[in-house]
Amino acid sequence: MREVVAGAAVTFTVKVLGAGLMFGFNVVVARLLGVEETGIFFLALTVLQVCGVLGRWGLDNAALKFVAANAELGEWGRVRGVYKKAVFLAGLLSFGIGLAVFVGAPLLAEAVFQKPELTTAFRAAAVGVPAVALLWIHSEALKGLKRMLASQSLQSLILPVGALLTIPLAARWWGAVGAVVVYAAAAYAAVFGGYWLWRRHTAHVNGAVAAFSARELAGTAKPLGAVAATSLVIQWLPLLVLGAVGTKAEVGVFGAALRTATLTSLLLVAVNSMTAPKFAALWAKGDLQGLEKTAVKSALLVSLSAAPILSILAFFPEHVLGLFGKDFALGAVALTILAAGQFVNAATGSVGYLLMMTGNGKWLWVSVALAAVTCAGLVALMPFWNGVIVAAIAVAVPLAMQNLLASVFAFLRIGVVPCNYAVLFRQPVS
């Protein structure tokens, strides 16, 4: 647990800085573009991130699992093999998806969103799909090596800093399209940084022959990819549906609230960075007692640390969203709802990674699938009520449901529930 806390402290520091930078990037974009152009930006950015998830199809988490387990055992040839196979497969898949979006952008903009002006922004997003996919591969592979500072620097420093440095001119000259181009270019810069960091941290084993089965990697990634793809329904379907049935202004307001609400799970992301490889290593060793203690203590750490952020978002939502501009304060209620859902996410700890790293990814998929069905049912109400409020409910309720169900499955499959804090008071058996 000391290792988790120490690693999380470093990661949390970087994540806080990165979250501040990315929050600042979103605020600058909103201030420069206005609420409607910001809506276009958020729609294109969502398409980019969705395609990035599909483009890596669980290969990032599979790479994390196998790199962590094999590095722990000193199998460096397999570590290098995992990295090479993951980069190749994700690069190939993400390029194909990006190409398909680039070609089909006019149809997507007109037939799905009834907004032809989105075509150029979608094409700009399509160019960045391979970068977003490969960025996650490098980040998770570095986590597997327990290089937490290097891993988090890619997404929390290089990406937002690169975007912030160039966004003022790009947004003024090219509007929402310029903002998307800036984000994609910063992602490519982060990928190059990730490649350099991987080479640096594996230089001592360059003599090891890279050898790992692509079939084994793909087989492990397949259910994890299904989980990630299904999670997209919960995270992004409400915003995409709002983009189809609502106005660009509503998308801008909801997008700002949604991205702000993720601050409540900031520490969860930091702790996940350490617990995921730790779970894989403890499971490989058969240390169930250590696995349980790590899961429960890390969940408590996340819960206590998320509470202050949640309080700010719950009691001062108008002030927080007012930073984006006066028109964005209309999403105050939505922000409160989203923050509540994110707190449940934080309170249940690293339950998703617990299932994935112990070979129970299919049960995580079941919990995500049930939550996704709930999300789809809720977004069907969007045309009949306040679209922004319904979208917030359609994110928060399924997110909480997913994590609570995953906790039940973790108990049934491995006997561990991350939010079972009573474990901390259990007397050791003499």
How would you describe this protein?
- There is one protein chain.
- With 430 residues, this protein is mainly α.
- It has one domain (2-424).
- It is built from 15 helices and no strands.
- The protein has helices at 2-56, 59-72, 76-112, 119-127, 129-144, 148-201, 214-245, 248-261, 266-285, 288-315, 317-322, 332-347, 351-357, 361-379, 387-414.
- Helix 2 packs antiparallel against helix 7 (214-245), helix 4 (119-127) packs across helix 6 and helix 9 runs antiparallel to helix 10 (288-315).
- It is globular and about 55 Å long.
Name its key features.
single chain; 430 residues; mainly alpha; 83% helix
Write the layout of secondary structure elements.
Layout: H1 2-56, H2 59-72, H3 76-112, H4 119-127, H5 129-144, H6 148-201, H7 214-245, H8 248-261, H9 266-285, H10 288-315, H11 317-322, H12 332-347, H13 351-357, H14 361-379, H15 387-414
Helix pairs in contact: 1-3, 1-4, 1-5, 1-6, 1-7, 1-8, 1-9, 2-3, 2-5, 2-7, 2-9, 3-4, 3-5, 4-6, 5-6, 7-8, 7-14, 7-15, 8-12, 8-15, 9-10, 10-12, 12-15, 13-14, 13-15, 14-15
Separation, N- and C-terminal Cα atoms: 22 Å
Radius of gyration: 21 Å
**What is the element string, with H for helices and E for strands?**
HHHHHHHHHHHHHHH
Biggest β-sheet strands, sense, barrel: none
Count of discrete domains: 1
Give the low-confidence spans. Answer: none
Q: What is the overall silhouette? A: globular
Mean pLDDT: 84
Structural class category? mainly alpha
Strand content: under 5%
Short description:
This protein is mostly helical and 430 residues long. It contains 15 helices and no strands.
